[in-house]
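> forwarded from #structure-qc
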């Protein structure tokens, strides 16, 4: 369920009242595995006869090159480097706000995580499209999505513009980013379900019939066909019947391995949306202490109108890795955290910064010994330097937000 628009909340309530749903919802694992094979090019299952094997094989040759280049240029080095920084006893639940469908980076940073949650403005999309898409159209779609994945992997971060463009594809672009992440890291999808977040923060899973009815209702009401009247930060959350998704996955070919869980949640995390409907925050709080990452997050955690998600992170983070779009020192320090810097930071290469928050980060990097960073993590700085920081609790400190910066 979309968690931010009153019309959708009312629609969801009406649908829930009208239809009793199975506790587990409908499992679209078979569709996910076909999409994984023919579009993300994971595994070596037979290509369905309705598609062109030649075209799929050519596409998968290109994807193999993209994946190999990504591992060589970023993932392998980043994974090894971050492993040397990451404590061994971190929570296995990971929260990645403003993360799109970037499961690739999440698994590089936290390869042992058993539960990973990304949150962004982009809807997951309808995995069932793989059942009806024509062969010629599939060829076009996989080429377009391959281009977006190449762009993501080359830059080590994705733009909101690219993510939203991919999410409007006939094939579900956000899901494709996640499935590509599984392929890169030697994983495979086992099950896929869509879910709502209930007012108390718990999840309820949707049946195929519910999704059909919701999609029809959205189409009839023309929900999601135009942007909201008021947009604070230019981009806005997508309205879709196929918004929140859960994928259970495991190491490829290891049927005995415990299942791990990836969830993507659609939400605008600014304060006005979180005040109107806080079920996303309630869901996140239910996880207890979490491991956190964010990168290329448009510096939203600098802004006063993202204080609720920032306060959630300050109360619940066990350990966080980010670029300079993470939490400013004036909030992290009073909340009991220390921040350790790597690489160089001379200023952001873009941002609206009325409060001169950039000065805090420049001072932070200057105050510490230089520590080499051989790869990009999220944005470069204004001078195209690589940079990264770790936020961790000071010994004996208890986490919590502070009003130190007004």
């Amino acid at each position: 369920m979309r968690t931010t628009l009153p019309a959708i909340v009312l629609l969801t309530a009406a649908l829930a009242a009208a239809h009793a749903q199975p506790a587990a919802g409908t499992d679209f694992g078979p569709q996910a595995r076909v999409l994984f094979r023919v579009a993300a090019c994971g595994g070596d299952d037979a290509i369905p006869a309705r598609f062109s094997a030649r075209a799929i094989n050519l596409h998968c040759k290109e994807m193999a090159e993209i994946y190999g280049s990504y591992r060589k240029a970023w993932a392998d080095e980043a994974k090894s480097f971050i492993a040397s920084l990451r404590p061994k006893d971190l929570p296995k639940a990971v929260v990645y706000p403003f993360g799109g469908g970037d499961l690739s980076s999440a698994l590089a940073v936290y390869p042992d995580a058993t539960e990973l949650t990304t949150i962004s403005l982009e809807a997951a999309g309808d995995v069932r499209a793989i059942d009806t898409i024509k062969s010629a159209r599939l060829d076009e779609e996989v080429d377009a999505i391959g281009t977006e994945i190449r762009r993501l992997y080359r830059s080590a971060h994705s733009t909101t513009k690219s993510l939203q463009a991919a999410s409007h594809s006939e094939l579900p672009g956000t899901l494709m980013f996640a499935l590509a992440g599984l392929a890169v890291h030697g994983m495979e999808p086992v099950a896929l379900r869509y879910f709502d977040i209930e007012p108390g923060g718990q999840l309820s899973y949707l049946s195929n019939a519910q999704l059909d009815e919701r999609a029809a209702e959205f189409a009839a009401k023309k929900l999601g066909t135009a942007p909201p009247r008021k947009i604070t930060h230019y981009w806005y959350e997508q309205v879709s019947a196929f918004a929140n998704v859960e994928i259970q996955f495991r190491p490829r070919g290891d049927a005995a391995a415990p299942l791990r869980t990836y969830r993507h949640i659609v939400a605008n995390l600014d304060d006005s949306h979180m005040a109107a409907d806080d079920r996303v925050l309630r869901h996140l709080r239910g996880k207890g202490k979490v491991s956190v990452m964010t990168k290329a997050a448009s510096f939203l955690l600098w802004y006063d109108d993202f204080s609720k998600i920032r306060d959630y992170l300050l109360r619940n983070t066990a350990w966080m890795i980010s670029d300079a779009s993470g939490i400013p020192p004036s909030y992290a320090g009073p909340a009991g955290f220390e921040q350790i810097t790597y690489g160089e930071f001379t200023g952001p290469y873009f941002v609206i910064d009325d409060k001169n928050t950039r000065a805090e980060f420049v001072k932070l990097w200057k105050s510490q010994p230089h520590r080499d960073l051989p790869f990009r993590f999220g944005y470069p700085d204004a001078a195209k330097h690589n940079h990264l920081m770790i936020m961790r609790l000071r010994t004996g400190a208890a986490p919590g937000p502070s009003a130190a910066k007004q």
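QC bot note: Residues 49 and 400 are 56 Å apart (CA to CA). The chain is about 40% helix and 15% strand.
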